[in-house]
Design goal:
The chain is an alpha+beta fold. It has two domains: about 200 residues, Cytochrome Bc1 Complex, Chain A, domain 1, CATH 3.30.830.10; about 180 residues, Metalloenzyme, LuxS/M16 peptidase-like (Cytochrome Bc1 Complex, Chain A, domain 1), CATH 3.30.830.10. Helix content is about 45%, strand content about 20%. It has 15 helices and eleven strands. The strands form two sheets. A six-stranded mixed β-sheet has the order 1-2-6-3-5-4, with helices on both faces. The protein has a five-stranded mixed β-sheet with strand order 7-11-8-10-9, with helices on both faces. A hairpin with a 4-residue loop joins strand 4 and strand 5. Helix 9 crosses helix 15.
Amino acid sequence: MLPYKRYFLDNGLEVITHEDRQSQIAVFNLLYKVGSRFEKPGKTGLAHFFEHLMFGSSANVPEFDRALERAGGSCNAFTSPDITNYYMTLPASNLETAFWLESDRMLQLSLNHKTIETQRKVVIEEYKQRYLNQPYGDIWHHLRHLAFDVHPYRWPTIGENLSDIEGYTPEDIWDFYKTHYYPSNAILVVAGNVNSQEILRLAEKWFGPIPSPHIPKEIIPRDAPQAGKRVKEIQAKVPTDALYKVFKMPARGEEGYLEADLITDLLGFGKSSILEQSLVRKGNDFASIGAYITGSVDPGLLVFSGKMSHGVTSYKAEQALNEVIEQFLNQGISTHQLQKIKNQSEAIKSYESIQLLNRAMNLAYFAHLGDPELYWEEFEKKSEIGPQQIQSWAKRLLCEDQSSVIHYQSLPK
């Protein structure tokens, strides 16, 4: 178990502390409950855009990075469909600097014309480099749009298209900031060589005066049940064909989510997985293949993705994949196979717990799901799932008429 203390300020900010006297540093992790699933069509990518804007200036901080570096710290952030997470590491003796910096940009970020346009150029260039100019780089634009009809998961966090990013107005940006960046929409975790009572005092001092507006959460549209297999072909200058096949799966915390996670672990995790052994080492169709889940707060995707061997079409590869899945559904799962996967999961969990930053992020994320205790409860539930339970869910989830498939085809030379 990971020791922690949990508090709530009057303005709604959730504060979690994790004391580790063996550490010489402190981690300051602030999670905002906003990701790309809170965006609107035509205004996509704003959550990710704000990740960049937040490292500009605020009322009392001309340059965020430079102020933190003077205190011996470093920082970074990431955006997902469900959250935006900002984190800093710094000497525990300089921790108050993190409170000053983070509270200042929560309350009074400088969203001036120069900052907005500078970061707009940065994000547009990132979009082009990572999604347009990389082989297979646009796959998640196509795949999400194929798999989802109305849910905001149908676009990636970078944004649905360049025109959205190019079209943000100052009003769009200010509205997004006011709607999502305030104490009751955030979770603060401070971990390391810290004192919980001192952290609470600092949280009250720096974040306590910041007001939280009453903003009702908008209802996010849900997709209707899928009514048949969906297929899309893409032709591009890529080295080989690639295959992406996804199935809808339950949301995190719902029945079937952990079983879906174990299904992909059994089929596609690591060099000893069923797909690796059957389709790469013993087969001729795939150069590589894997399986994973998107791990979404709302119903997400169970994903199979692979690159073909030279000269092999994605259609031939899909047939080979289908045969392995069918065999998996019919033959059952050995206790030995399952235990091996569970042992690997336990080893990964143990390794993750070594890093102080990982511990802080996990406490923040599971608090966002409802309770930090879910971190251990989820692991314990997963360890108790048996082969029959997994196979039953595999038959429910891995239905051909519930699949969405992208055939990413290489153009003839």
